From TrEMBL:
Belongs to the DapA family. SUPFAM superfamilies: Aldolase. It comes from the Bacteria. The keyword tRNA processing does not apply. This is Dihydrodipicolinate synthase family protein. PANTHER family: DIHYDRODIPICOLINATE SYNTHASE. The active site is at Y136 (proton donor/acceptor), K164 (schiff-base intermediate with substrate). InterPro entries: Aldolase_TIM, DapA-like. Keywords: Lyase. GO terms for molecular function: 4-hydroxy-tetrahydrodipicolinate synthase activity. Pyruvate binds at V206.
Length: 305
């Protein structure tokens, strides 16, 4: 499937049972909720997907299950977060074999690579797969920035097509757009900059709280993209206290708890993560319950998709 890099693409959580197995039933419930809301793709095995805790076989199961669920309606993209170039290339080969349509690729894990090493890493992955690639640029959390000069070198590979920008610098979207035009599709990866990024010209939004609130997230994107700013803003202002749960070291636990409150997920995480407890759990639940009490009536945003 050719990927049209635009719109809302949820970085979905991985659902687990109480005995630490994949919960494919609840996973399916959530994927179907995303499709019903009108998302443009499904991204597996990202930070929210607890990628570092998944086995290769679990990743295979998630890809194959998602491909079966979406039935070609949207692309299925899997994140690659490997320590070695060889491991990343092997992961890309497995992704294609299992039916993925594209890749989201982080720089090397653990080792803080230099600019030259980072460019070489991405180049080797791109040369060894024909799957389209989104570069995941998150220097805040992962310590390596893929700069505009580095993209100048990387874009000689036709299959490097998009960037998920999580620098938290809203002006970076304008810099990408000014320098590369339509050659590079730009997504925001920060929920609390979701609407602002769309207004500034982002092609899409790799979202987190969409996992619990798919319709609201897609509505904000589609309304903002259509220039219906006041309608988008009304939803976004309601949404922002919830979206702030994404910018936390416990974002996985926060968003899984949010999925529980909206009935499309479970609270189970994989150790060493543990579910929230005590005062922090109360605080997050208070934010979610307050939001649910004032949940807005959405306009018919689907006519814009």
């Amino acid at each position: 499937m050719r990927i049209e890099w635009k719109g809302v693409m949820p970085a979905v959580t991985t659902k687990f049972t109480q005995d630490d197995k994949l919960d494919l039933d609840m996973f399916g419930v959530n994927i179907n909720a995303q499709l019903e809301a009108g998302v443009n793709g499904i991204i597996l095995g990202g930070t929210l997907g607890e990628a570092s805790t998944l086995t290769d076989d679990e990743k295979r199961i998630l890809v194959e299950t998602t491909v079966d669920l979406v039935k070609g309606s949207v692309p299925v993209i899997i994140n690659i977060a490997e320590q070695t170039t060889k491991g990343a290339i092997e992961a890309a080969h497995r992704a294609k074999k299992h039916g993925a349509d594209g890749l989201m690729v982080l720089p090397p894990m653990r080792y803080k690579s230099t600019d030259r090493e980072t460019v070489t890493y991405y180049s080797e992955v791109a040369k060894n797969t024909d799957l389209p690639i989104m570069v995941y640029n998150n220097p805040v959390d992962y310590g390596i920035e893929v700069t505009h000069d580095m993209f100048e070198e990387l874009l000689k590979f036709d299959n490097i097509q998009a960037v998920k920008d999580s620098t938290r610098d809203i002006s970076n979207i304008t810099r990408f757009r000014s320098r590369f035009g339509s050659r590079l599709n730009v997504f925001t990866g920060v929920d609390t900059l979701g609407m602002e990024s769309v207004v500034m010209g982002a092609d899409g939004w790799v979202a987190g709280l969409v996992c619990a609130f798919p319709a609201e997230t897609v509505a904000v994107y589609e309304l903002a993209k259509a220039g219906r700013i006041q309608e988008a803003l009304a939803i976004y202002r309601w949404f922002l206290p919830i979206l702030e749960l994404d910018i936390s070291p416990q974002l996985v636990q926060n968003i899984k708890l949010a999925e529980v409150t909206t009935g499309i997920g479970t609270e189970q995480v994989r150790a060493p993560r543990l579910p929230l407890q005590g005062e922090e759990r109360k605080r997050v639940l208070q934010i979610l319950e307050s939001g649910l009490k004032s949940r807005p009536q959405l306009p018919d945003y689907k006519v814009l998709i």
